[in-house]
Each structure stands twice: as C-alpha cells, then as structure tokens.
Specification:
Layout: H1 90-101, H2 104-124, E1 150-157, E2 165-171, E3 178-184, E4 199-203, E5 212-214, E6 220-225, E7 232-237, E8 242-246, E9 267-272, E10 280-285, E11 289-294, E12 303-306, E13 321-325, E14 333-338, E15 342-347, H3 353-356, E16 357-362, E17 368-373, E18 380-385, E19 388-393, E20 402-403, E21 411-416, E22 423-428, E23 432-437, E24 447-450, E25 456-461, E26 467-472, E27 476-482, H4 493-587
Antiparallel strand pairs: 1-27, 2-3, 3-4, 4-5, 6-7, 7-8, 9-10, 10-11, 11-12, 13-14, 14-15, 15-16, 17-18, 18-19, 19-20, 21-22, 22-23, 23-24, 25-26, 26-27
C-alpha cells in the first residue's frame, strides 16, 4: 500500500512571477574621490599580514576524580539468642532450639526462607558456559622459540616522606592476592629520628593505597605470612624482638616477648615451621643464635641454638646468621646462611646443641644473603652472596656443583622458580633482576631487566611463578609479570634438570676423588722424602759420631802419652836426685 499526500496552494499566494532577460550595464550613480578623507588614515610601511590556512584548534584536559576502593572483612559470630539464654551453654541452646522447632510458625517461616536460600544457592552453583574444562591437558607445553620477556604491572611506593629500604616481602598464602612489605633503614646509624616504623599490607587490585598498617615497636626486617592461617603474620624487629600480628585484631602486635629473652641483634629472618598447630616458627639473627618459638606462649623461646661451628656452644665465636631455609618436606633439617660466608646444615633431632650442627659448606667471600632448596630436588640448594650464585648438593661438601660468573655488581637476593626446576632469579645492587635458565645456558642470564636506578635488596616469587616482587633501596616495590615461557612447565624439564644435577654432582665427585688422590700422592711423596732425609741424617749422624769417637780416642792417647812423658821425666829427676845424694854420702 503506497501512501501519497499532495500539497496544494493557490497561484496568487506565490507572489509575482520573475521574468529574467539580458540587457547591457547601466550607470546609476557616480561618486568622485574626496582628497580630504585621506587625512584620516595613517600609512604604515611595511604591513605584515599573517594568514593561517589550517583551522584553529583548542585543547582542553579534564581529570576525573579518582575512585578509592577499600576491602573490609566481617567476622560473623553466633547471635540472635534471647537475653535469658546463654549462648555458650550447650544445654540451654539445645532446649531453646527444641522449643522453637515445636512452634507452628517455625515450619512456615523455614519454608519461606528456604525458597530464597535455594534461589541464592542455585545462583552460586550456576554453570559458567565459558569455563575451560581441559586446562590441565595443556600443562606440558613445548618450548616455543620466542624471547623471554617481563613487564611491570604495578609499583608500590613507601607512603612516608623519609623513604626506607624494602627489607622483606611475603605473599598472601591464598593465591597471592596481597603482599606484605616490611620497611627498614639498613644503613648503620643512618636512620632519621622522625623515621616511621610502619610496614604495610598491599592489595594487588588497589595499588594506590595500602590495605593495612603494621605498627611494630622497632623497624621490621622481616614479615612473614602464616601458611596455615592467612590472618597471622610473624615479624622480626631491628632491636632483636620477635612478635606476631593478627589482621583481625588491628595494627598493633598481639604479643611480643620481653626484649631480654630475644635476640641481641636485628632479626634478619623468620620462617614458619610445618606443624599440626601451625603456631611454631624460628628466627635467626647476627648475634649467632637461632631461636624456636610458639606464638601460643611467647614468654620464652622453646629452643635455642648457638651457631658455633666448633660445637663447643661458645657464643663469643658463633657465626652471625643472615638467612634461613626450611623445607616442609624435610621437617627435621634447616639451613642457615652466615655473615662469614659459610652455610650451616642443622638437624633438629639432635639432643645436644653440638649434635644439631651437622656440617658446614664454605664458598662465599661475604655474607650469604639467600639460601633456598630446589622445590623439585631438595638435596640441591641455592646460595647468593658476594658477586656470584652457587648451587650445592648435600652429597658434595667441599665445593659447589654449579656457579655463575662473578658480576660487576654485588648480588643481594635470589630464589628458585616454583614451577620450573631449572630457573632461578637474582637481584643486584645496580637495580637489575636476572633470570637464569640452567637448561638454556650457564654463562649468562636468559633475561636481564633493569627495574630501577637504585639498588635492589629483596625479591619474592609468587606461587604460580608468574609474578615477581622486588624491593629497592628507596622503598619502591616493583611487580613484574613474566612471559609464559618462564612460568610454564616444559616437557621433560624435570628429567633434564635431574640429569644435569646428577651430571654436575658426578663431575665434582670425580674432581674431588682426583684431588684426594693427588693429596695422597703428595703426602706419600713427602713421607718418602722425609724417610730419605731421615736416613741421610742418620748416616751423617753415624759418620759424625765415628769421627767424634776417633778424635776423642786420639786426643786421649795424646794426653796419656804426654802424661807418661811427664811422669818419666819426674822419675828421671828423682833417680838423678837419689844418685847425687848417694854420691854425697859416699864422699862423706
């Protein structure tokens, strides 16, 4: 169906019709120039005229207001009981519950609330149509020939005016959604009087503002999440005290032992132990002590160990502890990195303090800033100190099995990748994070990233191996995200890494046996030379004694001869005297 509407108008309403025609030009007016009008104008010479061809544009910026989000938790407790019912009394609550269940309105109310609850439960259990059900099938991914990369995704800065060094980092045990950062001035006697003692907990989704403040009595050198209870953190202070915090109870420490019962030097490391209660931990300090604690009773340490390698339990010659290591799969063993460059292997089963120190590994020229066992091969462990990284095996105690070259800048921290057994990370004083892949090459890192211009002092890898947090000298914590090649388990990587560690261990055993043989040969040779020298000395001694005996013999004979001659002269004189006396008697 076509709709047509016709507009109509009378011809007279259009006006007079225009008729156009051609005709020549006509002059209607002629105005002559007036010279007096020129006096009103000022001549300018030269005259510049600027002509802009393009259109004039204006720029305007608008900053929107920043939205600040806060995450708050709520603790639900049992409530709703009448005033005359004691909620803690089991008999009262059971009796009241039975009384309510007999009420007629109870069933009706439950039926109404049940429908609402069922709707909510069904919403929570709704199926995600975009969910990938076979993610694990691609767990083993072939190595892709593409360069390893990393990018910065977040930066957490110290909110105080006086910037402090990031001394320690700890990831939240529940998927690493939060990051606990401790701040402390590590320069001796350089801390300002008005410097803040606070440390902070940051949420990865809100890097603009910290989620919670941790307020210690002294600056924190370490702050560690409890792996069993994510609300509890243990921290070690600069004044030697140790304490723990509960995020549900505020920013202040729940309990701290007396200062005379703790360490005498700063507490550099705290690690939670694998226990049923999840309340045990141990700490290390440069005062040469390792103390075991139970946060349920912090009046005194549960156990104390003096790091005296001579096993005489002498605190005056004890090694200062800088780093600690504990592997949950080996609950009786622990390792301590010392200021003197030695790594002490300890055993908690020892009854005496001397039995707890099993052996020592020596290979660094300065403090051992990091000690960590390989998560896939616990008998192989990593140490970071001076200008190099060393990988050791418990079977070889004289030397490390793998070591990196000596760098131009000192190394400050290091850790293994939790996903790949052959990858580890290190930080340096030049602000660089190095990623090493031992299956790729040993001579240089697979990826080196310049994070900042100031020195880096700490790092911590997330459990999924993708995010790495590194802290700097000026209190800046940078969050790096690695490419999939560095955080994805490669096919046959575990067997290849095992073969590499076994090969290097075997090589060190061969070299150690060869050196032992050379030392034995040198010892035998030196003993033979000593025997020859002893024989020569004995022969020379015998000849010397014979010469001395002959000399003494001839001297004795000469002395006897001289004595006989003197006695003979005396006899002759006596005989001569007697003969003269006889002659005188005859004459008389």
């Amino acid at each position: 169906m076509e709709i047509v509407y016709v507009y109509t108008k009378i011809r007279s309403e259009f006006g007079r019709q225009c008729n156009f025609s051609d005709r020549p030009a006509e002059l209607h007016a002629d105005i002559l120039p007036d010279p007096t009008l020129a006096e009103n104008f000022i001549e300018k010479n030269p005259v510049d005229v600027f002509v802009q061809v393009s259109k004039d544009m204006s720029e305007h910026e608008v900053n929107t207001e920043r939205f600040k989000s806060e995450t708050r938790g709520i603790n639900h407790v049992e409530g709703g009981w009448p005033k005359d019912i004691n909620a803690n009394d089991l008999e009262h609550t059971i009796r009241y519950r039975k009384k309510v269940e007999k009420d007629e309105n109870y069933v009706y109310t439950i039926m109404q609330l049940g429908s609402l609850m069922e709707h909510c439960v069904k919403q929570n259990n709704a199926i995600n149509i975009y969910e990938e059900y076979f993610e694990d099938k691609g767990k083993y991914v072939e190595r892709v020939e593409e360069p390893s990369t990393a990018k910065t995704i977040n930066v957490f800065s110290d909110p105080n005016e006086i910037k402090r060094t990031v001394s320690h980092l700890s990831w939240h045990p529940d998927q690493g959604r939060k990051l606990a950062i401790s701040y402390c001035c590590l320069e001796f006697q350089r801390a300002a009087d008005n410097m803040s003692y606070d440390s902070y907990i940051w949420d990865l989704d809100n890097p603009n503002k910290h989620e919670m403040v941790i307020k210690p009595v002294s600056p924190l050198l370490c702050l560690e999440y409890n792996p069993k209870d994510s609300h509890i953190l243990a921290g070690g202070c600069y004044n030697g005290q140790m304490g723990y915090w509960d995020t549900r109870k505020g920013s202040q420490a729940v309990e701290m032992p007396a200062i005379e019962l703790g360490h005498r030097d700063p507490v550099y490391k705290i690690i939670w132990l694998q226990s049923k209660t999840g309340t045990e931990c141990f700490s290390a300090s440069t005062d040469g002590q390792v103390l075991w604690w139970d946060i349920r009773k912090l009046s005194e340490p549960v156990e104390r160990l003096v790091l005296d390698v001579t096993k005489k339990d002498n605190p005056d010659i004890a090694y200062g502890a800088v780093s600690l290591e504990f592997e949950s799969t080996m609950p009786t063993k622990f390792m301590v990195g010392t200021e003197q460059g030695a790594i002490i292997l300890g055993n908690r089963k020892g009854k005496l303090p001397a039995e707890k120190i099993v052996t020592t590994f020596t290979g660094h020229h300065g403090p051992v800033y990091a000690v960590q066992r390989n998560p896939f091969y616990p008998k192989n462990f990593l140490t970071v100190g001076d200008w190099t990284v060393r990988i050791w095996s418990e079977d070889i105690r004289d030397s490390s099995i793998i070591w990196t070259k000596y760098h131009m800048s000192k190394l400050t921290d290091g850790c293994w990748s939790p996903i790949r057994p052959s990858v580890f990370f290190t930080t340096k004083l030049d602000g660089t994070v190095d990623t090493w892949d031992l299956l790729f090459k040993h001579s240089e890192p697979a990826l080196s990233i310049k994070v900042c211009d100031e020195p880096l002092y700490s790092l911590r890898i997330q459990d999924n191996g993708r995010l790495l947090a590194c802290g700097s000298f000026l209190g800046t914590t940078t969050l790096l995200e690695f490419s999939s090649g560095l955080c994805t388990y490669q096919k046959n990587e575990k067997s290849l890494a095992n073969a590499m560690f076994e090969r290097e261990t075997k090589r060190e055993r061969i070299l150690e046996a060869r050196q032992r043989e050379m030392r034995v040969k040198e010892r035998v040779k030196s003993e033979q030379e000593k025997v020859v020298e002893r024989k020569e000395d004995e022969e020379e001694t015998i000849e010397y004694k014979i010469e001395q005996a002959e000399k003494t013999f001839f001297e004795t004979i000469e002395q006897e001869r001289e004595r006989f001659e003197i006695e003979a002269e005396k006899v002759d004189d006596r005989e001569k005297t007697l003969s003269e006396e006889e002659e005188e008697m005859d004459d008389y």
